[in-house]
Amino acid sequence: MKKYLLLLLLISLYVANGYNSISDYILHHHRSIRLPDADLSFMGIVAENGYPIEEHFATTHDGYILRLFRIPYGINGNGSSTTTRRPVLLQHGLLDSSITWIINLPSQSLAYILADQGYDVWMGNNRGNVYSTNHTTLSVKSKEFWQFSYDEMGIYDLPTMIDYIIKETGFTQVPYVGHSEGTMQAWIAYLKDQDFSSKVPLFMALGPVGNVTHITNNALRALAELKIDDLFKIFGFNRFLPSPELLRFLFIDFCTECDICCADVVEWICGPHKGAFNNTRMPLVSGHEPGGTSIKNIQHFAQGVSKKQFQMFDYGLVGNILKYDSDHPPIYDLSKFPTNVKVALFSGTLDELADPVDVQQLFSTLPKESIINWSIIHNYAHLDYVWALDANQLIYPQIIEYLHNFSNN
Ligand SMILES: *[C@@H]1O[C@H](CO)[C@@H](O)[C@H](O)[C@H]1NC(C)=O
Ligand SMILES: *[C@@H]1O[C@H](CO)[C@@H](O)[C@H](O)[C@H]1NC(C)=O
Ligand SMILES: *[C@@H]1O[C@H](CO)[C@@H](O)[C@H](O)[C@H]1NC(C)=O
Ligand SMILES: *[C@@H]1O[C@H](CO)[C@@H](O)[C@H](O)[C@H]1NC(C)=O
Ligand SMILES: *[C@@H]1O[C@H](CO)[C@@H](O)[C@H](O)[C@H]1NC(C)=O
Ligand SMILES: *[C@@H]1O[C@H](CO)[C@@H](O)[C@H](O)[C@H]1NC(C)=O
Where does the signal sequence lie (predicted)? Predict the structure, then answer.
């Protein structure tokens, strides 16, 4: 039954892709009642909370223009005068964006907390999400723009953002906090880019994902089991959320009408949400989520589930030979992870994407000398590391301690 719901969702997205007027219609005819915050932009929300906020653009070697947000220091100018403000980069997960780091109140959200601790907080946005839909030569409406998956986010986006921060701040090292897909792209960057480990000596991995063999998440399982490849051929490699506005409209209006069915569908796609969560802020969430990505990226995740391997995108026999000179896509071998990097893993007992069994395997594959600690948070699910109201007690103090002890800046 739910498989068909997903199919319906995909088809409606496909239809919406062909009819941009649907989102135009929605934008014109639906001005829902929301929290005041919900209508503010990212920068508006941060500014409203009394923090300084900047917007930056970094261009990758393959032409994608990525938007980074920066909270350079804390509230009321705390830490603004010091010349030793240390940079840190926070990177969002699949279908998400930098909004995830400021989704709660300042005392509860990691970005503000680190800024108040004297850090220069940078938040990245991967190619193809709502904040990073520009390219030096490709149009966002072209198929070519959407030809990417998390391979490119690891090979191009993350190193580009780190280099940009190094250039802007004059520091030589940038510690990193990644959530979900933000951890996958980091594993890839460390394995593929020889210089990355000396620039990013500390990596805090929230809901770490490598192999997704034991994933229990319904949506990705369903995608993997649907033999979705044919469906993707019909869709073409395009934008997964052709009109984020349409989805927001669905979230806001439909969820107001029937919050139970909505919660059900959202939980089915994102996994359950077990931690204490501030439901009053749901309109703000609806106003900014989901962040969007490419269909090819979703397909790459589905491949991870069906092929049971953390590997590069599988183009099929002929495609692989053309692209990789091998009939199989190259595997990301985490036993080769650089030993001069310090990694802290944070996982949850109820996480459907970073499943406890897969994280156990990840933990045993990584070189022992790299791992500072593996914290297992009881009853945490995949979004709780960033959205739960008690993450500021269960996780962020450890992050602050690691930043303090394990970075040379
Ligand atoms: C100001 O920043 C320092 C660290 O730079 C921190 O210890 C202190 O708690 C901060 N004060 C406030 C009011 O946030
Ligand atoms: C995209 O980037 C180009 C080159 O930097 C810039 O001229 C253009 O204004 C940007 N377009 C949008 C919609 O941001
Ligand atoms: C929940 O969010 C609302 C709206 O931003 C805020 O007024 C309230 O204090 C928050 N509650 C908690 C427990 O953080
Ligand atoms: C992924 O699973 C394969 C097959 O079980 C295993 O050989 C490999 O070490 C795993 N990789 C990671 C990163 O856990
Ligand atoms: C390491 O993880 C354990 C298990 O979650 C936790 O109890 C402990 O506080 C962590 N150690 C440090 C130094 O953060
Ligand atoms: C961090 O350094 C302090 C002071 O040296 C020490 O007490 C603490 O155990 C260290 N924490 C970790 C996780 O290494």
Answer: 1-18
With the C-alpha atoms ordered 20, 25, 31, 32, is the resulting torsion angle positive or negative? negative
Residue range 322-366, pLDDT digits in tens: 999 999 999 999 999 999 999 999 999 988 888 899 999 999 999
Q: What is the pLDDT of residues 28-54, one digit of tens each?
A: 334 344 455 656 789 999 999 999 999
CA distance 370 to 368: 5
Which residues make beta-bridge pairs with 374? Answer: 345
CATH code of the domain made up of 2-408 = 3.40.50.1820
> Active-site residue among 355, 382, 384, 407?
382
The ligand that comes nearest to the alpha carbon of residue 388 is 3
Residue 382 annotated in active site: yes
pTM as predicted: 0.88
The answer to whether 295 and 236 are in contact (CB under 8 A) is: yes
Which of the two residues, 80 and 230, has the higher pLDDT score? 80
User: Nearest bound ligand to CA 407?
Assistant: 6
Does residue 338 have a cis peptide bond before it, meaning omega lies within 30 degrees of 0?
no
Pocket residues for ligand 4 (CB within 6 Å)?
210-211, 213, 309-310, 334, 361-362, 365
pLDDT in tens, 161-216: 999 999 999 999 999 999 999 999 999 999 999 999 999 999 999 999 998 888 77
User: What is the three-class DSSP state of 231?
Assistant: helix
The Cα 100–Cα 119 span in angstroms is 18
